[in-house]
Q: What sequence folds into this?
């Protein structure tokens, strides 16, 4: 099934706020065979919203809008949809009760402006927003559906999972089954990977499709399949998935779509090991990624952001002679940083980074983008020097992901339960 997304808000058009809802909608509906084939970003303007809906309905049976449902005067989506689909705005007592409940949970008092959220079009079926004050509105006309959702990303994600996705699947039942499998691949550029697996990809039957989804430090390959025989589809997509994993061998970081930091956590648990980080140029980003995964406290003890040479010496016991001889951005320094982190934070393993993220600070010998990464495990201390092109943020992201991947590789070389 195809659907269109309309993100509404002046703030999106001027870059004040980034539209993340479209990606969340696609991510959550794609596993069930729904494809987002059109995304429009429009202003808080009635004519623009109506034109966008007309255009979306030309190519899709389902349209999801996000934004413009607040209680202030600039949020006109509700009134515009009422005009488009007919009916009138009337207070819904159930919506009002829900708004009061949400406001009370936030420790606030209901005011007249927020209470106006209970005014909803009589032409819509209302779905209560259990995490926000803006009700979700489901409109239908000529067999087509428009669902108006709030613009707050957290609310959109929560309500998609708990209410919208199940109802869409039930409303648009299909005889087709949809399955997908993913492979995370390292050590290849996207183009080289495509050349390497060209024969395998060309042999895919018409009901299977391969997508290339590059991410920092790796390429995610996703096999999508659609067929009216679910058992047959599962058997075939599993067989092709195993073929692809065998073909790529050691370059497969993971045979499913998991965040790299989750893969690292799983490896640490599998080996019974603990981890710490010592970060300079990445500024704590690696520890942020690690602690974003539930359960990280079981394997992660902490991080030392040692940005200055003094911090490297005083907190991580990096020798002043090493800094003077090789410089802060060196494989020798990150090895000592990693070993110092293990000692200071009482861990079995450590990741250390030191580099030049830019835009300034580079030299001919060590240009901007130079990053040294140290990995300490019970199997030894290892160091690597990389050059990552791009701006400061891109260097930090690439360095962080590369460091996580290197840690996974070195931990996988160890015997299970080495402690």
A:
């Amino acid at each position: 099934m195809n659907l269109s997304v309309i993100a509404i808000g002046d703030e999106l058009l001027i870059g004040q706020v980034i539209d993340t809802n479209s990606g969340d909608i696609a991510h959550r509906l794609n596993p069930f065979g729904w494809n987002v084939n059109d995304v429009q970003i429009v202003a808080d303007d009635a004519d623009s919203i109506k034109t966008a809906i007309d255009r979306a309905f030309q190519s899709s049976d389902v349209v999801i809008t996000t934004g413009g449902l607040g209680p202030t005067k600039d949020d006109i989506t509700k009134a515009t949809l009422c005009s488009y689909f007919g009916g009138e705005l009337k207070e819904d007592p159930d919506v009002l009760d829900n708004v009061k409940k949400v406001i009370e949970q936030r420790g606030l008092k209901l005011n007249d402006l927020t209470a106006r959220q209970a005014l909803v079009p009589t032409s819509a079926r209302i779905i209560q927003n259990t995490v926000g004050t803006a009700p979700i509105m489901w409109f239908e006309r000529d067999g087509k559906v428009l669902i108006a959702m709030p613009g707050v990303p957290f609310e959109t994600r929560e309500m998609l999972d708990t209410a919208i996705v199940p109802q869409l699947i039930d409303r648009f039942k299909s005889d087709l089954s949809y399955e997908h499998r993913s492979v995370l691949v390292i050590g290849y550029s996207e183009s080289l990977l495509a050349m390497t697996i060209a024969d395998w990809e060309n042999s895919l039957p018409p009901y299977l499709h391969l997508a290339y989804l590059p991410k920092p430090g790796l390429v995610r390959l996703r096999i999508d399949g659609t067929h009216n025989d679910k058992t047959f589809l599962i058997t075939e997509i599993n067989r092709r998935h195993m073929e692809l994993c065998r073909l790529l061998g050691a370059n497969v970081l993971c045979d499913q779509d998991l965040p790299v930091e989750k893969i690292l956590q799983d490896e640490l648990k599998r080996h019974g090991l603990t981890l710490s980080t010592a970060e300079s140029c990445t500024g704590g980003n690696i520890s942020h990624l690690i602690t974003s995964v539930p359960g990280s406290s079981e394997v992660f003890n902490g991080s030392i952001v040692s940005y200055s040479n003094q911090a490297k010496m005083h907190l991580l016991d990096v020798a002043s002679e090493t800094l003077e001889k090789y410089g802060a951005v060196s494989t020798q320094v990150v090895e000592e940083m990693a070993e110092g982190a293990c000692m200071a934070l009482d861990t079995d393993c450590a990741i250390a980074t030191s580099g030049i993220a830019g835009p300034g600070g580079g030299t001919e010998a060590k240009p901007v983008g130079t990053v040294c990464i140290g990995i300490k495990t019970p199997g030894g201390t290892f160091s690597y020097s990389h050059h990552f092109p791009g701006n400061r943020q891109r260097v930090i992201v690439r360095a962080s992901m590369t460091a996580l991947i290197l840690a996974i590789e070195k931990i996988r070389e160890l015997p299970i339960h080495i402690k």
